[in-house]
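> run fold Exlusion protein FxsA
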Amino acid sequence: MRPFPIFAALFFIVPLVEIYFLVKVGEQIGPFKTILLVILTAVAGVYLLRQQGLSTLGRFQKNMASGQLPAKEIFEGFFLLIGGALLLTPGFFTDFVGFLCVIPVTRQFMAKRILANSNVSMSGAGFSRGRTSPDDHVYEGEYSAKPDELLERK
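> ok
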């Protein structure tokens, strides 16, 4: 699946959807209230983004300190990044998708779905600071250093 055509289509479709919703809402409540509503959703989104970002960062650090793989927190951080960018983009459609990425329930659901469909293991195997399991592919061996004959020939 090539991402360029998808992003190109989104580049044209999303602004058209945004303009449509801005015009429709502006017809119903007026232009000043529409602008105020867009600014209010951006401010609320930034507040929620800050709160959830700090919470996710705390869980990330806790998992790292205990030697567990913070895979879920990494994906949640990715969704927070996307959500923050969408919330700062003016418009109602991007705000809706941005809030879906920032609200804990939907963000955690999306992160779990991605983890369930990926090869990332949340058990921390191979990440546990020296503890090994039979699945870690640890190989033992010996080595000896031999002097390099080319360096000694001067």
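Residues 14-119 form one domain.
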